[in-house]
Amino acid sequence: MTALAEIIRERIAATGSISVAEYMELALAHPEHGYYRKQDPLGARGDFITAPEISQIFGELIGIWCAQVWMQMGGGPFSLVELGPGRGTLMGDALRATKKIPEFHDSMTIHMVETSPTLAHAQYQRLRHEHPRIEWLDHIDELPDSPTILIANEFFDALPIKQFVMTEDGVRERRVAWDEASASFMFVEGPAGLQLAKSGQSIPTGTVMEQCPAARSIMRTLAARMKAYGGAALIIDYGYLGEAHHDTLQALSQHKFHPVLRTPGDADLTAHVDFSTLMSIARDAGLQVGPLLNQGQFLVRMGAEMRAEMLVKHAQGHQRDLIITGLQRLISPQAMGELFKVMACASQADIELPGFAL
Ligand code: SAH
């Protein structure tokens, strides 16, 4: 049993079952044993790989997106914010791709929002020579009151979700308990304290539904800040439009699916992102919100294929193959192209969101 499993087992023994959100929060963010606190999970030797680690084109095009939005905002000092920046690869590629616009670099202060000391250190190592003003923060509440351009890739999927189940007796919350007989964690059902919309009546028994209170609260804060000080955001993640009527909680260990309750703290835990809710929060705050795009669509519209051709021209042998296969992994519907979605919003209606115009 992992050290964290022991801590969770004791907590359950003392106070009863815990919600899926509490389990996820402990597994990912426990100060000592949480998955993101103790290791670098990324890359071939880690548990999963992300788009910026697959191809430099990803971060480059996002850098260009930010610069184009900044120009439309009228330029001027601003904060370039990244939520959950992993190894700093995306930011490094974005900065390199925009070097030819020195006013853009001169106008920005970079804010990296990161809770993991291990990853914050990796980001510092990667970026310390790339820009003179980079600051690290634990939480979005510490961001300065300035115009903001924000990037979040695979950040929202790491936030704790609650799960609910439709039963014969109405909606119940899915919770985590300890099963003595099998000496393992198991799911149980408890009171939900949740009102479903009227359409809830037709949901079949056994259906699992999800909510992410942390994502809602972060999006509300970000949207209010963007409305007050000006700005735009680009959010990329695997997720869905409409309500999720299935269980999207998953664990990954060494690039393979893993039982979610087996080794808390030792496997990555994620849930798909509910983009409809994020988009309606942004809209309700008075922001312009673009249509939800597939990652493939977005990258192609931003010029991914042309960029790959240029890189191929200057590369040799094996390097060429890596550029082509990297691009294919990002845009192909069989790989990340359709599963991953891109949402964009901006404070002003007249900002044309690059890649999002019809
Ligand atoms: N964006 C990176 C990394 C994705 S992994 C990439 O695309 O490669 C998720 C990232 O979010 C990690 O950097 C993790 O440490 C960070 N993270 C997870 N929960 C967080 C939270 N509540 N606040 C800030 N960062 C968080």
Walk me through the topology:
Layout: H1 3-15, E1 18-19, H2 20-29, H3 35-38, H4 51-54, H5 56-72, E2 78-83, H6 89-97, H7 102-107, E3 108-113, H8 117-127, E4 134-137, E5 148-153, E6 162-167, E7 170-179, E8 184-191, E9 208-211, H9 213-229, E10 231-240, E11 250-253, E12 256-258, E13 268-270, E14 273-274, H10 275-284, E15 288-289, E16 293-294, H11 295-301, H12 304-313, H13 317-331, E17 340-346
Parallel strand pairs: 2-3, 2-5, 3-4, 5-10, 10-14
Antiparallel strand pairs: 1-7, 6-7, 6-9, 7-8, 10-17, 11-12, 11-13, 15-17, 16-17
Helix pairs in contact: 5-6, 9-10, 12-13
Question: What features would you describe in this structure?
Answer:
By secondary structure, this protein is of the alpha/beta class. It has one domain (36-160, 211-346): 3-Layer(aba) Sandwich (Rossmann fold), CATH 3.40.50. Helix content is 37%, strand content 24%. It has 13 helices and 17 strands. The strands form 3 sheets. Strands 2, 3, 4, 5, 10, 14, 15, 16 and 17 form a 9-stranded mixed beta sheet that branches. α5 packs across α6 (89-97), α9 packs parallel to α10 (275-284) and α12 packs antiparallel against α13. The structure holds S-adenosyl-L-homocysteine. S-adenosyl-L-homocysteine (SAH) is lined by residues 36, 42, 50, 52-53, 84-86, 90, 113-116, 119, 153-155, 158. Residues 36, 42, 50, 52-53, 84-86, 90, 113-116, 119, 153-155, 158 line the site of S-adenosyl-L-homocysteine (SAH).
Structural class: alpha/beta
According to CATH, the fold-level topology is Rossmann fold
Average pLDDT over all residues: 94
The CATH top-level class label: Alpha Beta
Radius of gyration using CA atoms only:
21 Å
The portion of residues forming beta strands comes to 15-25%
Distance between the termini: 53 Å
Please write the string of helix (H) and strand (E) elements: HEHHHHEHHEHEEEEEEHEEEEEHEEHHHE
Low-confidence stretches are none
